[in-house]
Amino acid sequence: MSLRPDLAIIADHVAHGARVLDVGCGDGALMAALRDTRGVDARGLEIDGGNVAAAVSRGLSVIQGDADVDLADYPDASFDYAILSQTLQTARRPDVVLDHLLRIGRQAFVSFPNFAHWRVRASLLWGGRMPVTPLLPERWYDTPNIHHLTIDDFRSFVADRGIVVEGAWFLSRGVETSSAAANFRAEHAVFLLKH
Amino acid sequence: MTDTDLHTDGRFGLDRRITLPGPLRLDGGALLSPLDIAYETYGTLDADGGNAILICHALTGDQHVASNHPRTGKPGWWARMVGPGKPIDPARHFIVCANVLGSCMGSSGPASINPAIGQPWGMAFPVITIRDMVRAQAMLLDHLGVGALLAVVGGSMGGMQALSWPATFPERVKACVVIASTARHTAQNIAFHEVGRQAVMADPKWRNGDYYQDQDPPAAGLAVARMAAHITYLSEAGLTEKFGRKLQARETKTFGFDADFQIESYLRHQGIAFVDRFDANSYLYITRAMDYFDLAEEHGGHLANAFKASKARFCLVSFDTDWLYPTSESRAIVHALNAAGAPVSFVELSSPFGHDAFLLESPELNRVVDGFLRAGL
């Protein structure tokens, strides 16, 4: 079983035996990989009941809940890492979710699709329509992605808040790419953050 | 244990009954001894005792979880969850289900004989709590040679017992499954139960609970209690879908007080069928135990404290149309378990059937329970 590329990067950088909260954990693919390969004590939060059932049936501890609402219930510093993969752009209040992430985890991994990737730019510039790409496959009216952001948006957001970037990885077509001109060239970004 | 032991050891099998010397010290202060417990076991206890699962039944349930009921002939009340090829499987697990203290299917309760006077206890039976039921179950497990439970599993009032297990015996529970349940009875829960109790007590045949020798129990009162309670087990949408305003075997309203509507006929049937199999005093005692249940109160007002000493994994399931023990109650438990740092899973399943959904066919529920239990091995 191969992990989605952004999840593989996260999995490679989580310390052995750590306590991890995966927010928006889906069917638990990352959690299962972390448990099986790195002896991680993983917990998950997931909004979709079918996904929760799938994750629980693989023996994972997952709670059905909404990142916008239920993160407030978790105690401070109760995890080594809080992970938010491909979920930030779906939150009603991404800023609040990020605050909680950095409160609950000593460090936080955040991954998101980059809306400033050249293909998105080209699509909007030449097509004049909201882009539909492999990474952003939904149309404007049915997308769960309600807060599109770019890598540069995210960089300035964390800089404004004094959040420390401890690591950053960029992906194009599932392959790691350099940080040079990432805002143009990367489809996808993974950040490791700390307060 | 070998097969021969199993066949010759009278402690194991269907339709068992044991009288334990006790005494059982009750939350109300009284000492109960001796103590009758009616129970069933399925499967074989591993040599290391590590495959035992205790199933806790609901208010009017019984020990016949996966075997035909001796009186009604109906299949066990949770044969969908317990049995060959099911999430709880006698091929892999040693399964115990005991009639709760205070009930009327063979365990000590108000209808059983008070040894001091050789007569039924009636209302002289001490008021019991959910925790008392759990302590009685622990005495049974001692008798069966079961130390720590692989899992304790229950729905509704069974879920209250399941939650009480790691709080009362933290070292004896490795996993806990709580379905369609709550950590405390709310004012609304208590209110519905009080309606039921008053219906029983208002029946002149109740006679302060002293009705056993004439074999003339307060059937009308108990039937009304059951009718009121039964409404709380169903959802409005489910009732509308099943009955709507349909009339019962007639073309027009009668302008009288017969059961004109199908829902009336259905509830009357539920009430009448219930009194054939349940004791009115037991109904009073068990509903009281549920009303007294507040797991946080037993632990200094903080539910998380109830789980501080436990190392168990927890799995909670609620149903979206259950308004008796709604999802918010399960979430409160999940919140407390998170605060206590316990490994917990929670899912709200979708069903049109309200509280009763936990007893009905639900492939998703089976999938969740199966995956959760297997993860502990």
Automatic annotation (TrEMBL), chain A:
<dbReference type="InterPro" id="IPR029063">
    <property type="entry name" value="SAM-dependent_MTases_sf"/>
</dbReference>
<dbReference type="InterPro" id="IPR010743">
    <property type="entry name" value="Methionine_synth_MetW"/>
</dbReference>
<dbReference type="Pfam" id="PF07021">
    <property type="entry name" value="MetW"/>
</dbReference>
<protein>
    <submittedName>
        <fullName>Methionine biosynthesis protein MetW</fullName>
    </submittedName>
</protein>
UniProtKB/TrEMBL annotation, chain B:
<keyword id="KW-0486">Methionine biosynthesis</keyword>
<comment type="pathway">
    <text>Amino-acid biosynthesis; L-methionine biosynthesis via de novo pathway; O-acetyl-L-homoserine from L-homoserine: step 1/1.</text>
</comment>
<dbReference type="InterPro" id="IPR029058">
    <property type="entry name" value="AB_hydrolase_fold"/>
</dbReference>
<feature type="active site">
    <location>
        <position position="355"/>
    </location>
</feature>
<keyword id="KW-0012">Acyltransferase</keyword>
<feature type="binding site">
    <location>
        <position position="226"/>
    </location>
    <ligand>
        <name>substrate</name>
    </ligand>
</feature>
<feature type="binding site">
    <location>
        <position position="356"/>
    </location>
    <ligand>
        <name>substrate</name>
    </ligand>
</feature>
<keyword id="KW-0808">Transferase</keyword>
<dbReference type="InterPro" id="IPR000073">
    <property type="entry name" value="AB_hydrolase_1"/>
</dbReference>
<keyword id="KW-0963">Cytoplasm</keyword>
<comment type="function">
    <text>Transfers an acetyl group from acetyl-CoA to L-homoserine, forming acetyl-L-homoserine.</text>
</comment>
<feature type="active site" description="Nucleophile">
    <location>
        <position position="156"/>
    </location>
</feature>
<dbReference type="GO" id="GO:0004414">
    <property type="term" value="F:homoserine O-acetyltransferase activity"/>
</dbReference>
<feature type="domain" description="AB hydrolase-1">
    <location>
        <begin position="51"/>
        <end position="360"/>
    </location>
</feature>
<dbReference type="InterPro" id="IPR008220">
    <property type="entry name" value="HAT_MetX-like"/>
</dbReference>
<dbReference type="Pfam" id="PF00561">
    <property type="entry name" value="Abhydrolase_1"/>
</dbReference>
<feature type="active site">
    <location>
        <position position="322"/>
    </location>
</feature>
<protein>
    <recommendedName>
        <fullName>Homoserine O-acetyltransferase</fullName>
        <ecNumber>2.3.1.31</ecNumber>
    </recommendedName>
</protein>
<comment type="similarity">
    <text>Belongs to the AB hydrolase superfamily. MetX family.</text>
</comment>
<comment type="subunit">
    <text>Homodimer.</text>
</comment>
<keyword id="KW-0028">Amino-acid biosynthesis</keyword>
